[in-house]
């Protein structure tokens, strides 16, 4: 799957950049960090595999329930409206759970990759950066100036002014000041 391929090659550029300009002592530290990242990567792969198996099981459950629903529809008067409605609700619930699992996979991948790249690009912490005060916001993937303004209860113009922005273009990880 493409998530696994992404994980497989996520570490290579980071290691190459770090080792290209390192002393022997720094290289030993890099080797230790790579080992830690490799363990995290293995855990993440296992988590992704488990979520994919769960999603496949849900897909099978959905198909089975949809088949039962079709059988009931074709059975005619012997199938009650309540039976059909109950099955439709189960299909919707399973589909919603599948979508939630899919989102969880993508969110976990994004967090782990951000943590991996953050631990080597800036230095010490492997956690994703958080706001240093409540009037700051760290731009996350998929966020726009409009969505941040709405969530923060301010106008786009106020956000632009407080952050000296000349356009709506944002970068993931960018810190924004949220005006009071």
Mean pLDDT: 76
Structural class determined from secondary elements: mainly alpha
Q: Strand-and-helix sequence, N→C?
A: HHHEHHE
Shape, per Cα inertia axes? flat
Q: Strand sequence of the main sheet, in spatial order?
A: 1-2
Could you list the spans in which at least 5 consecutive residues all have pLDDT below 50? 122-129
Number of helices: 5
Number of strands: 2
Helix content class? over 70%
The proportion of strand residues reads under 5%
| Major beta-sheet overview | 2 strands, antiparallel
The structural domain count equals 2
Radius of gyration computed on alpha carbons: 24 Å
Distance between the termini: 45 Å
Describe how the helices and strands are arranged.
Layout (H helix, E strand, L loop, with lengths): L1 H19 L3 H52 L5 H41 L14 E3 L6 H8 L3 H7 L12 E3 L3
Antiparallel strand pairs: 1-2
Helix pairs in contact: 1-2, 1-3, 2-3
Could you characterize what this model shows?
A two-stranded antiparallel ribbon has the order 1-2. It has 2 domains: 120 residues; 42 residues, Roll (Membrane-bound Lytic Murein Transglycosylase D, Chain A). Helix 1 runs antiparallel to helix 2, helix 1 runs parallel beside helix 3 and helix 2 runs antiparallel to helix 3. It has 180 residues and is mainly alpha-helical. It contains 5 helices and 2 strands; from the N terminus they run αααβααβ.
């Amino acid at each position: 799957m493409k998530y696994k391929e992404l994980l497989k090659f996520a570490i290579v550029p980071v290691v190459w950049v770090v080792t290209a300009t390192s002393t022997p002592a720094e290289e030993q530290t890099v080797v230790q960090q790579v080992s830690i990242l490799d363990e995290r990567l293995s855990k993440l792969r296992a988590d992704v595999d488990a979520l994919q198996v769960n999603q496949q099981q849900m897909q099978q459950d959905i198909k089975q329930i949809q088949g039962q629903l079709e059988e009931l529809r074709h059975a005619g008067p012997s199938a009650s409206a309540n039976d059909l409605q109950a099955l439709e609700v189960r299909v919707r619930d399973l589909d919603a759970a599948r979508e939630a699992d899919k989102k969880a996979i993508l969110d976990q991948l994004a967090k782990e990759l951000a943590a991996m790249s953050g631990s080597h690009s800036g230095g010490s912490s492997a956690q994703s950066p958080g706001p240093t005060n409540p009037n700051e916001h760290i731009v996350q993937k998929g966020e726009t100036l409009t969505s941040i303004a709405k969530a923060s209860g301010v106008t786009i113009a106020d956000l632009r002014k407080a952050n000296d922005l000349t356009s709506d273009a944002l970068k993931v990880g960018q810190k924004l000041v949220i005006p009071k």
